[in-house]
């Protein structure tokens, strides 16, 4: 290896080590952060329950519509 290659390799190693050092210093090691847990209030629970009821009712209506469509398709097939 020539002196210029060794010099370039040394510079690359120095830059790489410097970047790793700066990155580790700047890295925020907050692995044990204590974020407050969300505790639902009675209003939150009531809102979630009402949303579930709306979703459940909508699903039942969609199922009813699907059954009606299937019935209509079957009737059309019988006519043909």
Describe it.
This protein has 80 residues and is mainly α. The protein has helices at residues 3-26, 42-79. It has two helices and no strands. The longest helix is centred in the last third of the chain and has 38 residues, at 42-79. The chain starts with a helix and ends with a helix.
| Number of helices in the DSSP assignment | 2
Helicity, as a percent range = over 70%
The rounded Rg comes to 33 Å
Count of distinct strands: 0
* Estimated structural class: mainly alpha
Shape: elongated
Query: What is the number of domains?
Result: 1
Beta fraction:
under 5%
Q: Please provide the ordered H/E string of secondary-structure elements.
A: HH
- Major sheet description: none
Low-confidence stretches: none
Average pLDDT level: 85
CA distance, first residue to last residue: 87 Å
Summarize the topology.
Layout: H1 3-26, H2 42-79
Give a nutshell description of this structure:
This protein has helices at 3-26, 42-79. The protein is an all-alpha fold. The protein is elongated and about 90 Å long.
Provide the descriptors you would attach to this structure in a database record.
80 residues, 2 helices, mainly alpha
